[in-house]
Write a structure and sequence with these properties.
By secondary structure, the chain is mainly alpha-helical. Helices cover 54% and strands 5% of the residues. The protein has helices at residues 7-23, 30-37, 43-63, 75-79, 83-92, 107-126, 153-165, 174-194, 198-202, 232-246, 270-284, 292-307, 310-317, 322-328, 330-339, and strands at residues 96-98, 101-103, 209-210, 215-219, 225-229. The strands form two sheets. A three-stranded antiparallel sheet has the order 3-4-5, with no helix packed on it. A two-stranded antiparallel ribbon has the order 1-2. Helix 12 (292-307) runs antiparallel to helix 13.
């Protein structure tokens, strides 16, 4: 598919095409379900529903309806699914087979798949097309707190130096690095200086930047637009990359023009950005598994430490619920606890009397 310049529109079209392909291999009633949830879900959510339901129906045909193929399942079959079947399904996800692959789900992946199956059963139960919904009887897996991984002060500087100057880059990567260092530095600086999501970064076009106000427009989750602001450090890194693009005759003259390009002069992909972050992070901090989201956590933590205002952090990061911010940024809780450590005095002093 040709890039139209609108990353989000193109992504939605790709998702819709993939959903159509997957629906061909799912039971007939799934089309009704996807039509019913279309107005309140994104294309990415529905695509994930497809993947989850494919695994669920495959499980049913392997373990419960052994004489049936997935395409042959009916709504009457759904009514025969018990809460015990759903619990067995969750256990099955710990170690299951998909084609030739052996796969495994952690507690969060299990919880998501249970949520998808519940949505399916609830839809048909509310429509009166099935008389029982046993998924409501099944408890979701307990989710344990995830370790919060982020970069600290020196690691941030070292990461940017690795991208800009090639510190720690292997010899056979030097030629490749010379071609990408300005772009990679701009990408890492933008992550660490604004905390944007990877999809927001990949979706940026040149026209979204305004250097007069050091601001740019991003498309948040759900499609809403937001104006964010960046520092002079970020502005310098972005300006250097734009100047490099401007002087390269191989850069396509497209309108709108994708901001970050691959070496093939196409919009850079999410996977490519993930790989470049991983590449530099391995050099700087090999024991930490640093991803673009961890760079977002790094920014969120630093912003809280500078402002002490969790509501500002939530707003800048695009969190609809401030509890999401608390959950993702452990340092917020740590710093809050530390700030009250000396508030309760055990011995009175003369000043207290």
């Amino acid at each position: 598919m040709k890039d139209s310049g609108d990353y989000y529109q193109d992504r939605n079209i790709r998702n819709l095409d993939r959903i159509d392909e997957l629906l061909d291999d799912l039971p007939y009633f799934c089309e009704d379900f996807f039509r019913g949830v279309e107005n309140r879900t994104s294309t990415l959510t529905r695509l994930n529903y497809c993947y989850d339901l494919r695994i669920f129906f495959d499980f049913l045909c392997r373990k419960k309806f052994r004489n049936k193929q997935v395409k042959d399942l009916t709504l009457e079959d759904l009514e025969q699914v018990t809460d015990t079947d759903i619990e067995i399904f969750l256990s099955y996800l710990t170690n299951y087979r998909r084609g030739e692959k052996r796969l495994s789900c952690d507690e969060r992946a299990k919880a998501r798949k249970l949520s998808t199956v519940r949505s399916l059963f609830k839809y048909f139960f509310n429509k009166g097309l099935i008389e029982v919904n046993n998924t409501a009887k099944v408890s979701a897996p307990k989710l344990h707190e995830k370790e919060i991984i982020r970069l600290e002060g020196d690691e941030i500087s070292d990461l940017l130096d690795a991208a800009e100057y090639g510190n720690g880059i292997s010899r056979h990567m030097e030629g490749y690095h010379a071609r990408t260092k300005v772009r990679d530095t701009a990408i890492l600086t933008l992550f660490l200086g604004t905390g944007i999501r990877i999809s927001e970064l990949v979706g940026l076009n040149d026209e979204n930047l305004d250097f007069k106000t050091n601001s740019f427009v991003v498309t948040r989750k759900g499609g809403n637009k937001a104006i964010l602001y960046f520092s002079d450090e970020v502005a310098d890194a972005l300006s250097a990359y734009l100047e490099l693009k401007k002087g390269d005759p191989r850069v396509p003259k497209a309108e709108p023009a994708p901001l970050f390009l691959s070496l093939q002069y196409k919009r850079i992909t999410v996977r490519a950005v993930e790989n470049l972050v991983k590449k530099y992070a391995r050099i700087v901090t090999p024991l930490k598994k640093i991803t673009p989201h961890k760079l977002r956590s790094t920014y969120g933590t630093a912003l809280y430490r500078e402002t002490g205002d969790i509501y500002i952090v939530a707003d800048v990061l695009g969190h609809k619920d401030v509890n999401t911010t608390r959950k993702h940024y452990a340092a917020i809780t740590e710093d809050s606890r530390r700030s009250v450590a000396g508030k309760v005095k055990l011995h009175k002093t003369e000043d207290d009397e």
